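Work Package 3 (structural annotation) set out to generate three-dimensional models for the target panel prioritized at the project kickoff. During this period the team completed the workflow that converts sequence records into discrete structure tokens, so that structures can be stored uniformly alongside our sequence database. As a representative example, we reproduce one entry of 231 residues exactly as it appears in the project archive.
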Amino acid sequence: MAKKVKASDPSQAEQNVGEILSKTDQFIDKYWKQILIGVAAIILVVVGIIVFRHAYLVPRENNAQIAIFPGENYFANQQWEIALNGDSLDYIGFIDIIDEYSGTETANLAKAYAGICQYNLGDYEAALNNLKSYSSKDDLFAAQIQGAIGDCQVNLGNIKQGIDFFKKAASKANNSTISPIYLNKAAIAYESLEEYKEALDIYTTIKTKYPQSQEAASIDKYIERAKALIK
């Protein structure tokens, strides 16, 4: 015959709950001032963050967007110097936008624009600094920045670093239009180092993985050249 499970003593359970509630009341009575101060402090922090965002950050971001707009037009027209440094009228230039609106998304974008302008003006060191400090959640645009960093490195004679960035750009883009461009740059860079086997591997990848790309259209001659140069 199964044994009956003895129920807990209700009076004992109630007593335990009563003791807990009593101790809680005592704690609140003893530390109620500290508790109120703590709650008030949390409320003040939350309210302060909300006020700071709406009274300072949002207007500042809006002003930054207004400031950068002319520069984007100059950039689109490849007027690199004006886009970078301003037009001496009402546009201050990407460099000043980075400084004046630091911490905003627009200032972050200005770093990318400034870096590309500096690259096209031949200032590869400055371009590297701005391009490397730029951050993006958009993989496609981030890939193009990685590729631009690779271009800077190659022009500075850092071929291996440039190749690494070209490969990163191709991988991040994961795109049949853009990836072959950076892979092709990596292959050409390998050839400049007389590392023809590595170049051949990349040319072959372009042919097999991106057969419809513009780079693949003439890739056979590069494959044959690399094969002929391998000792």
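Residues 1-8 have pLDDT under 50 and may be disordered.
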